[in-house]
Design goal:
The complex is a heterodimer of chains A (126) and B (193). Chain A is built from five helices and three strands; from the N terminus they run αβαββααα. The two termini of chain A are 37 Å apart. Helices cover 2% and strands 39% of the residues of chain B. Chain B is mostly beta strands and 193 residues long. Chain B contains one helix and twelve strands, in the order αββββββββββββ. In chain B, the strands form two sheets. In chain B, strands 1, 2, 5, 9, 11 and 12 form a six-stranded antiparallel sheet that branches. Classes of the chains: A alpha+beta (126), B mainly beta (193). The interface between A and B is medium-sized, with 31 and 31 residues.
Chain lengths: 126, 193
């Protein structure tokens, strides 16, 4: 999913259609349509900006915020995957070693030292 | 040599062309049931469309040269049936993603030249109005999958039809913008009944 659609979802906007990936207010006003109802199963689409329920500034600001947060989101996703790989270490029927506990804690703390997958140094797996 | 023979019944043992060869069905203008009597195709770009609409909206494709959408980018094909009682089969493929667990989407084909009349609306089998459906596939970073869409209907006219793909989604966001260079094709095939 592209970022404008993500921004609309993050803003809680419902019932819309986006035909293209706008980069300006004019493009957004042309490509975005708010579904205001339906008739015989077909959507009634509004091209009135007053009915959009959102402005281009709100969308573009949210898009930027999502893009700024993306490196950290990807870092956390990779970190979560590594933690999940070692979940069996802490099952109730076994006791993890100190090294294993430290490895998992270091993974949880990775966001204190790294800001993206580009500058991360992963701890060594025991 | 040319001319027209008119008769209530015409019985012959063999029919040959002037050069002595056997005539084809096309030469005889005869089409048996099941014969393909027409075909059209159109290339589209599988990208640039997202929706959360719970009622049917036109599916579109993005402009390959940038972010400018043009009207002829809608996911349709124009077709003029040879006969009003033919069977038309409309097909295309899309590469899709629905990001919401529990959500599903449904497609319909409409004739935009005929008040968006929905195909298959009165057919005895299947869910009325819908010709294809799909569902959630993990998350917005998850697996995209190819969705084949096929609809079948009686032509009902010999006027030019604009066979437009429409879709609705029950929850989540439906996107087909996996790539900016994913070419797809729409085809319509006409079969004589």
């Amino acid at each position: 999913m592209r970022t404008i659609a993500k921004a609309l979802n993050a803003l809680g906007i419902k019932e819309w259609v986006l035909r293209g990936e706008p980069t300006t207010e004019a493009e957004f006003n042309d490509m975005f349509r708010k579904v205001t109802g339906s008739k015989n199963g077909s959507a009634i689409e509004s091209d009135k900006t007053s009915e959009f329920g959102v402005t281009w500034k709100q969308v573009s600001d949210k898009k930027k915020a999502l893009e700024d947060a993306e490196p950290m989101r990807l870092l956390r996703r990779e970190r979560d995957k590594l933690i999940a790989e070692t979940d069996w270490w802490v099952l109730p029927d076994r006791t993890p070693t100190d090294a294993q506990k430290k490895y998992r804690q270091d993974l949880r703390d990775i966001t204190k030292s790294a800001t993206s997958l580009d500058d991360v140094t992963w701890p060594s797996k025991p | 040599m040319s001319g027209i023979i008119q008769a209530t019944n015409l019985q012959v043992t063999n029919v040959k062309k002037l050069d002595g060869s056997a005539p084809t069905l096309a030469d005889l203008s005869i089409s048996h049931a099941g014969t393909v009597v027409g075909f059209a195709k159109k290339n589209v770009m599988n990208c640039g469309f997202s929706t959360t609409s719970s009622s049917l909206v036109d599916v579109t494709a993005a402009d390959v040269s940038g972010n400018t959408r043009t009207n002829d980018r809608k996911w349709y094909i124009d077709y003029t049936p040879k006969f009003s009682d033919s069977i038309l089969v409309w097909e295309t493929d899309m590469f899709l993603n629905d990001n919401n667990n529990g959500g599903y989407f449904r497609f319909a084909i409409v004739d935009a030249n005929n008040s968006n009349a929905i195909w298959d609306e009165a057919q005895p089998t299947g869910n009325p109005s819908y010709i294809s459906a799909g569902g959630y596939n993990r998350d917005d970073e998850g697996v995209w999958y190819n969705h084949h869409i096929r609809g079948c209907n009686v032509s009902g006219t010999t006027n030019t039809m604009r066979l437009q793909l429409r879709v609705l989604i029950t929850s989540g966001t439906l996107s087909n913008d996996w790539s900016q260079s994913d070419h797809r094709v729409i085809t319509v095939t006409e079969y004589k009944q």
